[in-house]
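Worked Example 4.2. Read the sequence first, then its structure tokens.
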Amino acid sequence: MIADYDQIMMRDSIVGLSTYHGSRTSHAIFSNRISYFFDWHGTSMTIDIECSASLVLLHQAVQQLRMGISRISIAGGANLIMDSKCFIFLSSLNRLSPDRRFRMWDADAKGYARGEGIGAVVLKTLSSALEDGGDIESLIRETGRAQDGKTQGITS
């Protein structure tokens, strides 16, 4: 996770950081803040592994349902670009596409293009959804996760 908000707070704080700064910006406690606010019970976790975090979180949510640990799982992800410093850093490493186009697995790829978005899915087992009479938008047949070990890139 790139901690734009935390870095902005540290940089722009005039009178010092509040006593709540650590819990307000901690990635480890973020999911628990949401559970606390909505009074949700059960597993609450933040996955911090860069680009594949939302897919790994979806995998974990599906596993919770399949193992019977949860009756409902919510998996969400967000990326908000709040500061230009990350762009400057990534640009200095030649990681960003100079034409702002993302050509994944293409011979003409010259970097990637960053984007913003927030999304979440509410998951139930098919039997629970049918029992509850809810609308079924799609089915997840399988999920997976991986780390490639010692390869060209370090991310999962």
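Now turn to a second chain, presented in exactly the same format:
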Amino acid sequence: MKKAAGLTIVWLAILSTSAFAATPTVWVVPSSLKRVRPMDAAGGEKNALVHAARGEYESFQIAIQAPRSGLTNVNFSISSLVGPRGAVISRENLILYREWYVTVKHHSPTYNGPPNLPITNVNTFPDALIPFRDPDTGMLPLNAEYKAAPFDLRPGYNAVIWIDIFVPRGTPAGSYQGTYTVTAEQGASEGQIDLEVWGFTLPLEPSLKSSFNGCCTTVPGVNEELLRNRIMPDTVGLSRE
């Protein structure tokens, strides 16, 4: 009886230690349009499947959830993608952001229904994208108020990484593979990225007519980011035409 009790205590100690040292839970968000709230349940798919044409940016999301012990010093990295006959899409073409949660204290009312009826009862949204590196310079952002990584994550809470994949013009069509890795002081988790590059190239001139950022003060880098994603700013300098 004493032996059984002793074994039970040992097993409880092992399980307790295992839970305390649990690694990050990671999963691929099913769509770039889906938003993961701070305490949503984790998904089960760890491998990302992406399709893109040459000359196109395509996006996907990787969510991270902290175990009961929480996570400290969390970071995210990604490999280059290797394809047919050794063709490579370098990791410099995979741009990383962390989604920043914004809490809205007073919602806008709807146009229909009772006065001041809020559009939603959800208060916290992933909204801003905080770059790991400045997309223009490729360097770490200097003197940034908000930093993408490293970061800590409270028990049961989520963080989401947004990845833009750019497929350079002239990239051979076919299947490309790579990996992503989430590290923390408590351990690491990883998954696979499968990119299918289609055998055609998007034209340089977009066919969709658009006009953005015309009413506000221009922030450095905004127009460049719009143009990278084939969206037209209200005004464009001669060097960008």
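Notes for the reader: The chain has a mean pLDDT of 85. The longest helix spans residues 2-20.
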